[in-house]
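Hello,

Our lab assistant flagged a job as stuck in the queue for most of the afternoon. It eventually completed. Since we weren't sure the result was trustworthy after the delay, we are filing this so someone can double-check. Below is the sequence as submitted and the structure that was eventually returned. Let us know if re-running is recommended.
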Amino acid sequence: MNPQWPPPPPPQPPYVFLSSGGYAMGNLYTALVEEGIPTIRDNETLELGSGLSSEEKEKMFEKTLLPQLCTSIEESKLVIVIISINYLNSSWCLEQVAKAVECNKLILPVFDDVDPIELRLQEGSVAEAFFKHEETFKDNPDKVRKWREAINRVPISVGVAEAFFNNKEAFKDNPDKARKWREAIYQGPISVGWSLQSRDESQAIVGTVFEELYGFPAPPLGLLFLYCSLFPEGYEFRKHELVQLWIAQGFDMREHRGETMEDAGIKHFNTLESQGFFVRSGRADLKVEYDEVITVPFYVTPSFFYKVNPSKLSLLENNCSSAKYCRVVDGKFDEASESSTQHMSLIYQGIDEMAFGVIQKFKNLRTLLLLAGCQSSIKCVPADFFLSLKFLSTLNLSGTLISRLPGSIGDVKPLRYIDLSRTPLSRLPDSICSLDQLQTLKLRGCNDLFDLPEDMHKLTALRHLDFNIGQQLSDMPPHLGRLNHIQTLSVFLVGTRDGHRIQELKNLNDLTGLLCILQLENVLSMRDAREANLASKKHLQRLDLEWISLFAENTKLQEDIIDSLRPPSTLEELNILSYSGSKLPSWLSHRSFADLIVITLDNCAYCELFPSLGQLPALKFLSVVRMDAVKEIDQTFFRSAHEPVDQAIQAFPKLEILEVDTMPNLKEWKEVKEGDLPSLLQLKMECCPQLVTLPSFLHLKSLKYLKLFKCPKLVLSDHSKLPTSLESLLIGDSCELKSWCRKEGDQELQLER
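-- returned structure --
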């Protein structure tokens, strides 16, 4: 008898029964064990020893091992079956499947060179295996019938169903094949299925197994989700904010070289959302606020708010062990442990000095969050508060009345995340610049903050400097170009001194989201503008180019400068404000900007022509405001003068909203060719006191909303027709247009005086 017999007792349930018949398991068993999932293999139970004849092994299997095997399956919570040709040829493997089906166990199949369709229909190699069994067990046909029925109950991959429904056209000329697939899909339950190919697939199986066993996502997802136990029920958060909190705790979720921590975190967040742990709260930031700069709520990527799925809250409560994570409600620190609590959130009214004194006792704190709803009459943090919190990595004081931070915050070297948004802070302590591990600093809505510390360039680990107070700052800190890891820099104020010039942006090629460049009048040359290297910032979604005011001198220089500020072709939104050139940049109408969705041109008062934007393939929103020098809208707006008029190419193919506002010298809009503006839904013409004529809009088959305000000279001739698609016509301070307002069919058109 083999010295390993009898086998060691199986682990205590719940555990996984891994049914492979001792054949190839790839990395699966190792991955399960490494994750700490109690797993028993059938070849541990079925160690038959050497020197036994086939007949002796069969007798031992029937009398001794089969009952033991059945007991292991009965006590397991789920059964993983690795289905291979060898597995299907094995009678005792099929007995395992039959037992799992009999016990109504959750079966997770893994296919090793076996076609799931052949398994379901019992064709091909599967049919051959069962033919052999029927020959072997001629005297016991019920046994083979039981195995067939059991195999038919094994779920096949959900991907099979997707393949069928996504490829119905492929089966149009092969009805027999379509019938087989349809039968395979509907003949039994559809569940998760994998192919045993790589360690990544083994990890995917492990994640599902872990959640099935414990009702909680496997690490690292479980650790990330557990951090949310700090949030009260219904607490709303944005995706990128939670990812930044995870990163501050040292969770490095990267899986391959070149992937950023943020991208990896977003991927893990999306996985948790897809598994139902996070749900959208029903609210979204549809526009990115930045001072008075207008952006468009319809097309910019919305920042959705999320919350923990209420059905998963109990998981957080049950897995919050040893007070490591503690949520303090209404000042009750009873469940917190001064020695073991590492992450704490405070949710109550009336935080006072006594509360800060209590918090100081938790010397192992890594996280301190004062969440929404916390109010305080305290306007400053006690001077010695941070001296006790040597391990703090995350600090959120947003929304409090704190107007001053002590310099001792600079002694908390592990700090990686600080949120001071919506506080009346008037200055930041200079010592904050000594936090060489700081990754995220949030200052949004700090309306009393007019200066930033001079030495912020020393924050070499900084990835996110998030603030929307650019227009109230007198200057930017110098040498921000040294922040090589910076991804969020919402605002950059151009200065004229060394370290403040636009060239500081040169190497900041990881910038993402919004970049608003203010005070562009301080750019002294086209060379300086070119050195900013905006085209290399491939991750930018929105760019604002803003001058502080109009000025008539150096018009040609301003044209050269804006030509040199060409953004990346991947840009989605562009806003140009208070530009003093007589023409807009040549790159603006280039077709390479295939992702550009939103354009706002505001106070470009010296520009004499509408830009040729009609060939931008993705443009959906265009707002033109205060272009005083423009006198007419003609075909150059739709097509470049250098391009032949090609009727086969529609101008503005995706444009849905066009706004023309405060154009004091605009007199005429000449024509709209048939086929142009095929997607236009809304057209607004406001404050155009010299406008006399508009073209016929009869060809605008999608137009639903037309607004004509403060256009007193506008007179429409009889040939000016409205499209039948129009649902709302708003006219105000334009008496000459009253006769144009009419009813057509059941559509009610509105008139505003």
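-- support follow-up --
The delay was a queue issue, not a problem with the job. The result is valid. The domain at 215-314 is CATH 1.10.10 (Arc Repressor Mutant, subunit A). The chain has a mean pLDDT of 80.
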